[in-house]
Amino acid sequence: xxxxxxSRAQRAHIPTSGTGPGTDADLRTGQGADGDPTVPHGDAGxxxxxxxxxxxxxxxxxxxxxxxxxxxxxxxxxxxxxxAAKAARxxxxxxxxxxxxxxALPPLSMDMYLPALPAVTDSLSAPAATIQLTLTAxxxxxxxGQLVVGPMSDRWGRRKPLLLGMVVYVLATAICAxxxxxxxxxGFRLLQGLAGAxxxxxxxxxxxxxxxxxxxxxxxxTLMLISGVAPIIAPLIGGQVLRVTDWRGIFVVLTGVGIAxxxxxxxxxxxxxxxxxxxxxxxxxxxxxxxxxLADRVFTGYMIAGGLAFAVLFAYISASPxxxxxxxxxxxxTFSLLFxxxxxxxxxxxxxxxxxxxxxxxxxKVLGFGxxxxxxxxxxxxxxxxxxxxEAGLVPVAAGLFVLMSAMGLAMPNTNAQALMRxxxxxxxASALLGTSSxxxxxxxxxxxxxxxxxxxxxxxxxxxxxxxxxxxxxLFLCRPWQRAGREAGGL
Length: 492
Prior knowledge:
mainly alpha; two-stranded antiparallel sheet; 16 helices; 70% helix
C-alpha cells in the first residue's frame, strides 16, 4: 500500500501504555507533546524501524517492543498532491472497504440465517431449541476465536492468520450448506464463528497499526458506517435468498462472500506489522501479554466500559422484537422500520463523532457525553416501562430506544480507540480482549431481558440501566480521565 501520510518514525510521540511524559496528551488529543498531530502511515515498507529514532520501552508486565517517537529533524510527513494524493486516497478507500468487509462478515453470518430458522427446524427434523444452538455456537466461536487469533497476529503478523482464518471460514461455511444433521450443523457453525473471529480482531489490530490518536477514532467511526449496515440488510438478503432456494442457499451465498473477501485480502491487504514489532514467545508469552494488558487499569476500564455499552445494545436486540410487537402491538413491518431507524441513528451519530467531534474535543469528553446520554435514555425507558409517567405508548418508548441506540455511536468507537491507543506493543492481543469481553458481557446480559416473561419491558430497561451505570462507573473510577487532563494541563 502506498504511504498515506508518514512513517511510524515520522509520527509525533506515538502513545504507549500511559507511562512517560506526554503520553496522556497523545491519548486524549492525538497530538504529541509538541502539539504535532499524529497521522496515519502506510505499508510494511513505510513501517520499517528507523534506528535513529528515539525509543520508548513497553510497560511493565508486557514484552518489550520498541515504540518510536518522532525522528530528529523530520517533523511530520509532507503533504501529498497530484497523483500521489490520488493514489493515497484510493489506497485509503480500499483499506477501509476491506476492513469494513471483514468486520461486516460476522454479522452477515449471524443475521442472514435468522429468517431460515423455521425452515432449518423442519428440514433437519430437530427441535427449535436445538436449532437455536446453531446461533449460540456461532456467537461463542466468535468470542473465543478472538482470544486465539489476536495473539497469533502479534506473533506472525496480521496477514497470515487472517488468510488462514478466511480459508477455514470458507470451508466451514461450505460444509454448513451440506450438513445432514443438526449436530453437524452446530459443530461447523462453531468452527465458522471461530474462523470468522479473525476478521473482527485483525481488522481492529490493523487499524491500530495504521493510525494513532484522533485518526484512529475517525477510522473506527467509518468502519461503524460499513459494519453497521450489515445487521440491517442481512435479514433482508436472507429473505430474498429464501425466495429462490432453501436455507442451504444462504450458506452458499456466505461461502461466495467469504471466497471473494479472501481473494481481496490476499491481493490488496498488505502486512502492517513489521517483523521487528512481533512477539516471538509461545502460549505462555501470549498469556503474559494479556495479563499485562489487564493489569493496565486504564485499558481495563475502557475494555469493560465498552463491553457494558455493548451489553446495553445486546439487551435491546434481544428484547425489542417482543417489546415492540408483543407488548406495544406493533406489526412486524413497524418493528422492522423502527429497528432500521435506530440502526441509522447509531450509524449517523458515529459519523458525526468521526467527522465533527473527534479532533475538536478530547475523546474522553465525547465518550463521557455518550455514556451520559445512554444512562439518561435507559433511565427514561425504565420510568416509562414501570408506569411512572402513566401508561406509555409505543411512540415515547420508541423515541427512548432511538436516543439510546444513537448514543452508541459515541460510546463504541471511542472506547475501542482509547483502549487500543495504549497497546501499540500488543494490538492483536488487546483487540482480542476487547472483542471477547464485549461478546461475553453481552451474551450474559441478553438472556436476563426475558427473566420476567414476554409481557413486560421492565427487565430490558433494568438491564440497560444497570449496564449503562456500570459503564459510567468504570469510565470514571478506572479510566479516571480527569487525572490525565490534569497532568496535561500541568505540562507533564
